[in-house]
Design a protein that fits this description.
Length: about 280
């Protein structure tokens, strides 16, 4: 890794106490520990999920927050961000191909990191593996809160819900994914940006619980498993970077692609070599 890369993308380590074993300072290991501890807690005390969701229930009216326009707007802002951000970054790369002589406004490696974390953590692991297979009914579908299905605890598989179920939270995963945007932020601004993003993560995730869309365990477990994947991919993209992911190499490839397309377009526009001779 170049020295400039080391400054922009340092190895992430969190030592919980002075002199802790190196393994425990690894943030990926810490996420897995949090995942294990949270899982054991909700397996032992499943009623905590019901208690926390009940805080947002209006007797006789269910999860009333879901009918308040302001909170619907908060949900829509979050949902929109998960496609506007990747599409916006893709358009910036297309702009690089269209103008290959100019430096890309977003580094290609950053684009692939942000896109792959969303696709793998939120898309594959959370939505395809868990939400479509675990069958946990959402809080608003549970009989305790006025629905017609029984409560199912965390990690318990059931057939009450067929697809897009409660366990685990896809929107909590895409909320924690917003932390990947820190790679686009100058180093000096990252502490402030981190606090802002973490506040948004909490707001977006809590909003889903208030809507009756997820239990507390759905959110917390989704955070830990998604964050572990994000940190693993961060290490792959920026710390132990393979040669083919070198940003200068990716930038050069985009430039060559743009130049080739420009030449092809000009040749087609003039009718090609044969058409030129015939004229």
């Amino acid at each position: 890794m170049a020295s400039s890369d080391r400054e922009r993308f340092p190895e992430i380590r969190f030592e919980p106490y002075p002199g802790c074993p190196p393994l425990l300072a690894d943030p990926i290991v810490q996420c897995l520990i949090l995942l294990l501890v949270t899982s054991v807690f909700f397996l032992l005390f499943p009623g905590v999920d019901l208690w926390f969701s009940r805080l947002f229930v209006d007797p006789g009216h269910g999860f009333a927050v879901g009918r308040i326009p302001f909170f619907k707007v908060v949900r829509d802002i979050h949902r929109s961000a998960t496609w506007i951000i990747p599409v916006g970054m893709l358009l910036l790369l297309v702009l690089k191909v269209a103008m290959p002589w100019r430096r890309a406004l977003v580094e290609p490696r950053d684009f692939w990191f942000v896109l792959s974390t969303l696709a793998i953590a939120s898309g594959v692991v959370v939505n395809l593996v868990f939400k479509n297979n675990w069958g946990r009914p959402r809080p608003f579908n549970v009989d305790v809160f006025g629905g017609d299905l029984p409560f199912v605890g965390a990690w318990h598989m059931s057939s009450y819900c067929q697809r897009n179920c409660s366990f685990v939270s896809g929107e909590a995963s895409s909320a924690i994914w917003l932390l990947t945007l820190l790679v686009l932020v100058p180093v000096a601004w990252r502490p402030t940006a981190t606090r802002i993003i973490l506040a948004l993560v909490a707001i977006f995730s809590l909003n889903r619980i208030a809507f009756g869309g997820h239990f507390l365990s759905d959110v917390l477990l989704s955070w830990w498993m998604s964050l572990a994947i994000i940190l693993a991919l961060y290490r792959f993209f920026y710390i132990n970077t393979p040669a083919w992911l070198d940003n200068a190499r990716l930038e050069a490839q985009l430039g060559r692609t743009g130049i080739a397309l420009h030449r092809l377009f000009r040749r087609d526009k003039t009718g090609g070599p044969k058409a030129g001779k015939a004229a």
